[in-house]
Design a protein that fits this description.
Layout: H1 2-5, H2 18-27, E1 40-42, H3 45-58, E2 66-73, E3 75-78, E4 81-84, E5 96-98, E6 108-119, E7 122-137, E8 142-155, E9 165-168, E10 171-174, H4 177-180
Antiparallel strand pairs: 1-2, 2-6, 3-4, 5-6, 6-7, 7-8, 8-10, 9-10
Length: 182
């Protein structure tokens, strides 16, 4: 009390508790990552929420830095398998893949584009997949229509290896269904 009244004690000299310092430090980016050379595109609000939920719940990641933009990529190598996105310039079709889903066992789609996202200074790869309607399934073959019913943002860890398919009757027959379920 004497120090305060005699003005020998200056309140700005009070040391902040370690937790307050840690919270202030968390507001600043911990590291500066080098920007990519290609054009970045901003994330939509729904994409931000979906990505954050996936990082926190599925990957058990503590998010310290989260970029608000992504970079488009044409191909990706995941799980020792090369996957391709649709490309207008090379006239290449995107890889047809099975998407892991808790709601449906057979959910197939064609990769439209890959997105590289920087979180905690590590690149995470996502794919926008045009998901097809599954018409019929049997033990060896799954017939899907060629018309996609919706798009889904999927982390590449949730994609299976490319499906082997044949076009038939206005749709596609997935020939390696039994192989993909193992």
């Amino acid at each position: 009390m004497y120090m305060v009244l005699s003005q020998r004690f200056v309140p700005s000299e009070i040391r902040k508790p370690p937790l307050a310092v840690a919270i202030e430090d968390a507001k600043q980016p911990p590291m500066v990552c080098s920007p990519s050379k290609s054009m970045k595109k901003p994330l939509t609000g729904e994409m931000k929420i979906h990505m954050r939920n996936f990082y926190e719940r599925s990957m058990k990641m503590n998010i310290l830095s989260f970029e608000e933009s992504v970079r488009e990529v044409v191909r990706c190598q995941a799980k020792d398998v090369k996957l391709y996105a649709s490309s207008v310039s090379s006239k290449k079709n995107g890889s047809l893949v099975r998407v892991h889903s808790s709601a449906q066992e057979h959910l197939y789609g064609k990769i439209k584009v890959f997105l590289e996202h920087n979180v905690n200074c590590s690149l995470q790869t996502w794919a926008i997949v045009d998901v097809f309607d599954t018409v019929t399934t049997s033990h060896r073959v799954c017939h899907i229509s060629e018309k996609h019913i919706f798009q889904r943002l999927v982390h590449v860890n949730l994609l299976e290896e490319p499906a082997v398919y044949a076009k038939k009757d206005g749709g596609m027959d997935i020939l390696n269904v039994g192989h993909l379920n193992m």
